[in-house]
Design goal:
The complex is a heterodimer of chains A (about 230) and B (about 130). Chain A contains 8 helices and no strands. By secondary structure, chain A is mainly α. Chain B is an all-alpha fold and about 130 residues long.
Chain lengths: ~230, ~130
C-alpha cells in the first residue's frame, strides 16, 4: 500500500521529467540531443504506465514488479543510446561516428544476447532475484561506459561545459543506481528502497534542466579544472 | 560477492563523478563577478571568500525567494562542502598538507554560494520593481 510520501515522490519525479522535456524543447535541443528527448519521453511514458498499473493491480502485485523492473531495464537501454550520442559528440572531430554507431549496435546486441541467455538460464527465478540482478548489471555497464567516456574527454581536452556536465550527471546517476541495486540485492528487505529509487530518478531531469537553462551552448571549461586536485 | 564488488566500485565512481560535477558547477560560478551590494553583505573585498562564510551565506540565501533552478546548484555545492568538511577533519591528523587545498576548495564553495545569493538578490529586486510599477 502506498502512502502520501510515495505519491509525492512519484508526482515530483513525473513533474521533473515533464519540466526537463519542456526546457530542452524550449532550448531547441531536439536535433542536437535527440536521445535526451527520447529518454525523457520514454521515462514519462513509463511513469504513466507505472501509475496506471499501481491503480489497477496495486503496489505489491507481481504485475507491478514485472513492469517496474523491465521498464527500468528498457529505460537503461535508452540511456545507452544517450551515451552513444555523447560518444559521437566527443569523437565528432575525429570522424569516427561510423565506428561509434557500429560499436553501439554491437554493445546493444551483446547486452541483449547476454540478457537473453540469463533469462533462458534462470527462467524459474524471474521477478524474484533475477530482475534486480539484471538491473544492477545494466547500470554497472553504464557506469563503466560513462567512466570511459569521461576519461576520453579528459584525454582529448574536451572543453564544452554542457557536454561535460551532461556526462558527469549521467555518471552520478548510473553510479547511484548501480550501487543502490547492488545493495538492494544484498539486503532486499529494507523498506527504504521504495523511497530511494524515486529520489534518484529525479537527479537526471533536474541536472539536465539546470545545464540547458543556465549553461550557454558556447560555454567552455578546462577539463583539468573539474578533476581534483588541481594545482593552484 | 559480485553485488558487493559492484557496490564498492559504484561508490568510488560516484564520489569521483560527484566531485567533478560539483567542481564544474563551481568553476562556472568562479567566472562570475559579484555585485557591490552582495560584496557588502558578504563582507568580501577581494576575489576570494573564506570557506567559513559558507554557512552564513546559505542562511542568507534561504531568506531570499528562489530564482529558478539555482537551488539544485546550491544543493550539490552544499553536499560537496559537507564532504570537504568531513575530509578536512579526517585529514587534520592524516595528511596536514592536504588542508590548504581543502580550504581553497571550501572557499570556492563559498564563492559559488555568494554567486547564488547575488542572483537571488537581483531577482528579488526585479520582483520588487515590478510590484511597485503596478
Amino acid at each position: 500500500m502506498l502512502g502520501p510520501v510515495d505519491y509525492i515522490l512519484l508526482f515530483a519525479g513525473f513533474a521533473a521529467h515533464v519540466c526537463a522535456l519542456i526546457f530542452l524543447l524550449k532550448k531547441r535541443a531536439f536535433t542536437q540531443h535527440f536521445t535526451l528527448i527520447l529518454y525523457l519521453s520514454f521515462s514519462i511514458a513509463v511513469g504513466i504506465g507505472r501509475c496506471s498499473i499501481l491503480k489497477t493491480a496495486g503496489f505489491n502485485s507481481n504485475a507491478y514488479l514485472y513492469f517496474f523492473y523491465y521498464s527500468d531495464a528498457l529505460t537503461t537501454i535508452c540511456l545507452y543510446f544517450v551515451l552513444m550520442t555523447l560518444y559521437a559528440h566527443v569523437f565528432s572531430e575525429m570522424g569516427v561516428s561510423k565506428q561509434v554507431r557500429g560499436g553501439a549496435m554491437l554493445l546493444l546486441a551483446g547486452t541483449a544476447g547476454i540478457s537473453y541467455h540469463m533469462v533462458a538460464a534462470s527462467s524459474d527465478r524471474l521477478v524474484t532475484h533475477f530482475v534486480a540482478e539484471l538491473g544492477q548489471n545494466l547500470y554497472f555497464v553504464g557506469v563503466v561506459l560513462t567512466y570511459l567516456l569521461f576519461g576520453a574527454m579528459v584525454k582529448l581536452r574536451e572543453n564544452r561545459t554542457r557536454l561535460m556536465q551532461i556526462v558527469l550527471s549521467m555518471g552520478v546517476y548510473l553510479s547511484l543506481f548501480a550501487g543502490t541495486f547492488a545493495l538492494g540485492n544484498m539486503h532486499p528487505d529494507l523498506p527504504i528502497w521504495r523511497y530511494i529509487n524515486p529520489l534518484i530518478n529525479m537527479w537526471l531531469p533536474i541536472s539536465w534542466s539546470y545545464t540547458f537553462m543556465k549553461v550557454p551552448e558556447d560555454a567552455r571549461i578546462a577539463s583539468a579544472r573539474v578533476l581534483a586536485p588541481t594545482n593552484r | 560477492m559480485i553485488a558487493a564488488l559492484i557496490f564498492a566500485i559504484s561508490i568510488v565512481t560516484l564520489l569521483q563523478f560527484f566531485v567533478s560535477y560539483s567542481r564544474s558547477l563551481i568553476a562556472e560560478c568562479r567566472g562570475q563577478e559579484l555585485s557591490e551590494q552582495t560584496r557588502e553583505i558578504c563582507g568580501v573585498t577581494a576575489r576570494t571568500v573564506t570557506g567559513d562564510k559558507f554557512r552564513k551565506l546559505s542562511e542568507l540565501i534561504a531568506m531570499c525567494p528562489e530564482s529558478g533552478s539555482d537551488s539544485g546548484t546550491l544543493m550539490a555545492v552544499s553536499a560537496y562542502y559537507r564532504l570537504l568538511s568531513i575530509v578536512r577533519s579526517l585529514s587534520n591528523w592524516a595528511s596536514p598538507t592536504a588542508t590548504a587545498w581543502i580550504e581553497a576548495e571550501r572557499g570556492d564553495c563559498a564563492w559559488a554560494a555568494a554567486v547564488v545569493l547575488d542572483r537571488r538578490i537581483a531577482y528579488t529586486r526585479m520582483m520588487m520593481n515590478q510590484q511597485s510599477s503596478h
